[in-house]
Amino acid sequence: MAVSKTIEIHSLTKEMERAGKVVYSLCVGEPDYQPPGQVLTATAKAAELGLTKYTAVTGDGELRAAIAADLKARKQTDYSPEQIVVSNGAKQAVLQALLAVACPGDEVLVPSPYWPSYPDMVKMCQAVPVDVKTSAADGYALTGKALREALTKHPKASSIILCNPSNPTGCVMSEAQLQEVASVLADFPNVVVISDEIYERLTYTEQPHVSFASLPDMFQRTVTINGFSKSHSMTGYRVGYAAAPLYIAKACGKLQSQMTSCASSIAQYAANVALKDVDQKWMAERVGELREKRDLAFRLIQAIPGVKVGLPSGAFYILPDVSSYYGTVTPDGRSVKNSHELCLELLRCEQVALVSGDAFGADDCIRLSYAASTELITESITRLARFLQSLKRK
Ligand code: PLP
Questions:
Q1: What is the CATH classification number for the domain harbouring 380?
Q2: Which of 50, 60, 289, 356 could bridge to 339 as Cys pair (CB 3.0-4.6 Å)?
Q3: DSSP string across 315-371
Q4: What is the pLDDT of residue 13?
C-alpha cells in the first residue's frame, strides 16, 4: 500500500506553513465554507441532550430512516433503513463495501483517473485493482466499449467502482452514459457496482445527477456510497454511508461492528438535522458559488499556453493536462519530467501546492481544487502560469 498522496502533499504544505512560509494550496478535498448554521447548533444540542453514547452499529435509527427517505425523494431509490449503514465518513463505507464484495484474488475494475484510495483499498482486500482508462476526449466518462473490453479480459472481476461525479475529473456521467454501462453489465451478472456518489449534490449540469442504483435491474447489484462531508461541508464530522442490498448491508454492518462500533453519536445527530432542516436555498447558493469558482479556474487555466483543460461538470476539481511542459528544466536547472516533479518544483518555486496527476493514475495532469476563495484561486493559477512559462527545454 502507498501512503495517500493527497494527504502527503497536504502535510508537506502544513510543514512549510509552520516554518513561516505562505503556501497557496489548492490541494485539499474539502469545501472552504462552514457547515449550515442548523448543523452547528445541532452539534452543541446533541451534547446537551446527552447523546454521547454508542449508537446502533449501523447508525442511529432516525438518521437511517431520514437517509432512506432522502434517497427515495431525490434519487428514486427505495432503500429500507436496514439497508443503510452509517460509517465514519464515506471512506470507511467504501472500504467496508469492498471488503464485503471482493475476495482475495478477485479483480476490481477502477476507471482512471481515480480517487487514490480506491486501488489501495482494493489491495487491502488482497484483491487486484484493474485500471480501466477513460479519456479527456470522452469527458472522462466510462464508455460501454472500455467496460466490455475490461470485463472480457478480466474474468476474475467481481466488482467495479464508479465515482460519479468524479474526483479528480469532475465528470458527471449522464443517464444515457450510465445506461450504456448498465447494458454492458447485464451481460456480466455477477459483477457488483460500488457507486461512490459523495459529490452528487455538487453538479453544474442541466439534468439532475442520476443514481446508478435507480437504473432498471441495477438496484440489487449496486452499493451506493454517499455522505455529508462534501454536500454539507461536514468533513470533520466523519459521517458517510452505504446503501446496499440487504445481504451486503449486513456484511458491512458486521465488519463495522469489529472495526469502529459506530459513527460519532453527536455527528449523527447533526447529520440528521442536515438532512431534515437545511433548505434547498443553502445548497443552491453553495453550488452557485462553486460554479462561479469553477468558471474562474477554467478561464484562467485555459489561457495558459500549452495546457489542455476541459470544463468539469461536478465536484470541485479541475484536471488540466500539463504534459507539454514535461522534459523541461526550471530556471535553476531542475528537471520537470512528470507530474510529481512538476508539482514539487511548483511548490518550491512559487509556493503553490497542487496534487500531481500520478496520484490519480493520470500522470499527464495536475489536480486543482477550486473550493477556495477567488483570491486564492486567482493567485495560485497566476503563479502556476508564471512557473510553467519559466520552464525551458533542455
Ligand atoms: N469518495 C471520494 C471520491 C472522495 O473524494 C472522498 C473524499 O475526498 C471520499 C469518498 C471520502 O469522504 P469522507 O470524508 O466522507 O470519508
A1: 3.90.1150.10
A2: 356
A3: TTEE--B-GGGTTEE-TT--EE-SHHHHHHHHHHHH-EE-EEGGGGT-TTBEEEE--
A4: 78
Q: Which of 255, 277, 299 is the last residue of a domain?
A: 277
Same domain? For 380 and 247 the reply is no
Q: Is the CB of 240 under 6 A from ligand 1?
A: yes
d(CA 101, CA 108): 10
CA distance linking residue 128 with residue 109, whole number of Å: 9
Average pLDDT over residues 281-308: 97
- Write the residue with the smallest CA distance to atom 3 of ligand 1: 167
Please tell me if the CB atom of residue 163 comes closer than 6 angstroms to any atom of ligand 1: yes
For residue 331, give its domain range: 5-34+281-393
**Ligand 1 neighbour 90 (Cβ under 6 A):** yes
Residues 266 and 305 in one domain: no
pLDDT at residue 6, as a whole number:
59
Same domain, 70 and 153: yes
Cβ of residue 196 lying under 6 Å from some atom of ligand 1? yes
Q: How far apart are the C-alpha atoms of 383 and 361, rounded to whole Å?
A: 25
Which whole number is the average pLDDT over 26-55?
A: 95
- Domain end residue (candidates: 277, 305, 329): 277
* Interval between CA 118 and ligand 1 midpoint (Å): 10
- Looking at the predicted structure, is the pLDDT value of residue 5 above 70? no
Identify whether residues 27 and 129 lie together within a single domain: no
Q: Are the beta carbons of 141 and 164 closer than 8 angstroms?
A: no
**Residues 173 and 47 grouped into a single domain:** yes
Q: How far, in Å, from the CA of 62 to the mean position of ligand 1? A: 23
**Whether residue 53 is found in the same domain as residue 195:** yes
- β-pairing verdict for 352-353 and 107-112: unpaired
For the stretch 82-132, pLDDT in tens is 999 999 999 999 999 999 999 999 999 999 999 999 999 999 999 999 999
Count of structural domains, the chain: 2
Atom of ligand 1 nearest to the CA of 115: 3
Quote the CA–CA distance of 291 and 211 in Å, as a whole number.
21
pLDDT at 117: 94
Q: What is the pLDDT of residues 332-353, one digit of tens each?
A: 999 999 999 999 899 989 999 9
Query: Residue 137 belongs to a domain with what CATH number?
Result: 3.40.640.10
